[in-house]
Write a structure and sequence with these properties.
Elements (H helix, E strand, L loop, with lengths): L66 H10 L3 H18 L5 H10 L4 H15 L12 H6 L5 H20 L5
Length: about 180
């Protein structure tokens, strides 16, 4: 075998180019070479699988309100407690889910067109259950108790309130509220 055909021989390595001189302090960096190749993009790697979505995020849990105490406070305050109840419950539901009327809008509606509030309140309480995949114990039509029988010794209003407040209290307890 000759030197050029020697499989074990090594080819001479080309001379490496010397590194460029380090820039001195205070001098600007040299501009990039024209027509140079763009910097290499990072090679994408396999990402870790995403965890399944657990459902809508929940905010703070609302307060459980005794139905009897609420009825008593409504009688003692000549009905003004209902404005507070609508404000607080709608505010808590809005903070918990991010959806709904919210306290200020509920209060304005309660003062100026109060007849719509039983429908809105029952509907929002039912939607709390629906978000969790549970059957709705109350809905907007539950407000018909208030509308149709509210005039008869407040029987309809009491039935509506017992159903709606009871469902709301049960929901808050299922979320960890005490009371």
């Amino acid at each position: 075998m000759t030197e050029s055909n020697d499989p074990t021989g090594s080819a001479p390595e080309p001379a490496a180019a010397p590194p460029p001189p380090a820039p001195e302090a205070g001098t600007p960096a040299p501009p990039p070479a024209p027509y140079s190749a763009p910097p290499a993009a990072p090679v994408p790697t396999a990402a870790a699988p995403l965890a399944p979505m657990a459902g809508p995020a929940d905010g703070p849990i609302g307060q459980v309100r005794s139905t009897g105490t609420c009825v008593l406070l409504t009688i003692v305050t000549l009905g003004f407690y209902t404005w507070y109840w609508w404000y607080k419950t709608h505010d808590e539901m809005k903070q918990h889910t991010g959806n709904g009327l919210g306290g200020p809008v509920a209060l304005i509606l309660a003062i100026f067109v109060g007849i719509v509030m039983p429908f809105f309140s029952s509907s929002e309480v039912g939607q709390l259950y629906e978000r969790k995949g549970r059957p709705k114990p109350v809905s907007g039509t539950t407000g018909l108790w208030y509308l149709l029988l509210g005039w008869f010794f407040f029987v309809g209003a009491i039935v509506w309130f017992v159903k709606t407040n009871g469902a709301l209290n049960e929901y808050w307890r299922s979320q960890g509220a005490q009371g």
